[in-house]
Amino acid sequence: MTTNRTFTMIKPDAVANGHIGNILAMITNAGFKIVSLKLTQLTVADAQAFYAIHAERPFFGELVNFMSSGPIVAAILEKENAVTDFRTLIGATNPAEAAEGTIRKLYATSLGENAVHGSDSDENAAIESAFHFSGREQF
User: Fold this and answer.
1) Helix, strand, coil: what percent of the chain each, to 5?
2) For residue range 18-39, what is the model confidence (pLDDT) as tens digits?
3) 116 in helix, strand or coil?
4) Catalytic residue numbers?
């Protein structure tokens, strides 16, 4: 199932460091249309549910604490080949390994605080979008 939508979150570190505007500009300059957008904060329960796939991983508690530590910007993006193109735009999870000019190379501070989330598949993009946005919030 290939779609033209993906989901992203600007994480608490990038929000706290004042990078919302620059990251959104990079996203739109790369040809993505923002179809849903909100500033919100995950509760611990929200973060646990969103990252449940990682519940057995050793970093799960740290991830939940970080993702619930401050506001995030959640967004649904639209573009042909959205998931793959967005993953390219954000760069490698580890900013030290991210390509020059990617969001994580420019704005991430560490492997754990890596500025943005991007869906890794069309299926997860749909699930993650529905987690954060009701039907009437998706345009």
Assistant:
1) 45, 15, 40
2) 999 999 999 999 999 999 999 9
3) strand
4) 117
